[in-house]
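Task: complex structure prediction.
Instruction: return structure tokens for all chains below.
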Amino acid sequence: MIKELKLHWQFAKYKTSERMTYRADFFVSALAFSVIHFLGPLFVLAIYDSGGMIPGWNRWELILMQGSFSIIQGIASIFFFGIVWNVEERVQKGELEVLMTKPVNLLWFLAMDSFDVDDIGQLIAGLAISGASIYYLVPLEGSIPLFLLFIGLGLALMFGLALLMSSMAIRFVKIGRLFEIFQSLTNITKYPKNIYGKGLKTAFSTVMPLFVLSYYPAGALLGADLGGGILISVCTLLVLIGSKILWNSTIKHYQGAGG
Amino acid sequence: MTYASASTSFSKYWHFFLLSIKQNFAYRSVMFISILTGPIKFFAQLVIWKSVFAASGQEVLAGFTLERTLVYYAAMRVVIHFIWDDADDKLMHNVHSGDLASYLLRPMDYLWYSVSWKLGYRALAIVIQAIPVILLIGLFFGFDLFVTDHLPWFILSMLLASVIQFELNTLAGLTSFWLKKPRGLLTMYRWASRFLGGMVIPISFFPSVLEKVLFFLPFQYTLYVPSSIFAGKYQLAGYSMDPSTMVLLGLGYAVVLGIGVIFAWRKALDKFTGVGT
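Output:
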């Protein structure tokens, strides 16, 4: 484990220094990734400024939900979510089998190799958005440890989804815009549960526990009703375990594609 | 230009148009994803806006009723398929790889080639993206969303939107001749232009100062104008205009931007060395 962590650190340093060759592009790129995360909060502000509202929530509570999502997506994108595209590219080029021969865990290697410092913009945006909303919402009635727990669960879900999509990339070679479907669904779940019907609420809390990416972390800080919190936590862990089993089986049966 | 040479030119670009359809058809499975994402995105807007209008207790917000808001988003899901292009990305790639030199050596105009390519790609998108999205949204949420009194003006404004989007993207892509790595800048431009064009929210919801600024910028002609025309009413920064006026203004912007593209293209070619980076 110590060896892997040292290797991970080396990769992060190497990837960062490589990116710093084009420093200006790095800063603009990080800024560009952060801008995307401000669109949701701007949407909320525009609605509230025009006299609209979402029942039971003020603008900063909603923005905190979006900020929580950005924090999770930022951390995931920097450290591991890139494995999806990394795996897809390597399968298409026939390079995945070469990696399998290396004396390091394949999944760990892919995560290290996918380290993307540009995505720090997403994390900074998430922290800024959450920070701004907390500034307007203090004193908060919720719990910081619970908030951190749900952020951790959100990251576990993102890792599970990354494994799921990577396994599909190996099995079907080209997954193209599959990520867009995931993005469309997560955009739905950046808003409070109470605006959805019973069916969707249940689906996004169990089968696809996407509410753990936004509603639950923000709700934990705000002291909101976290009914179903244990169920969604269990479902998140089940998605992670299921994805890992799928990944292991996919790698076991991988016969190489390339071309 | 003689009739014969004009006919040869047309035939050349017509072949690029057909080639674009053929090549992009190979990636139809990737394009099919929109059939899923389009209705999902529309559904998200439907749930959010129904809840917003119900909670606010108001019938009109920023000039939009709930019905008009939903029609706006439904129309936008169609307009997006007409206007989408990657002229900026392609130009950046061709400049940096040096591949542009091989295009410039061919007996064709790169800009007209890009236009033909886009037209072919979008013609395909109408069939395998826009029409299925209309059918799915219509089936699930009602075909009333696709009824308008201004169909001819909507079609004209959508064609202009496609031209203006191409011109804006080409101008953004032309920065590749001067900047070493404009990828980040282009990503930012893409998101900013979509937001300022009204993709996330109709721009009449923006603060009045920003509305006034946006009224004079071309971004609104890519999404906001055609979608608003379809939804029955154009209103921005306190101005209400009829569809014909907006189409005429859009035409003016298309011409001005077109001149800008030709001017910037000539300047860029003076700078191009063909070495790549």
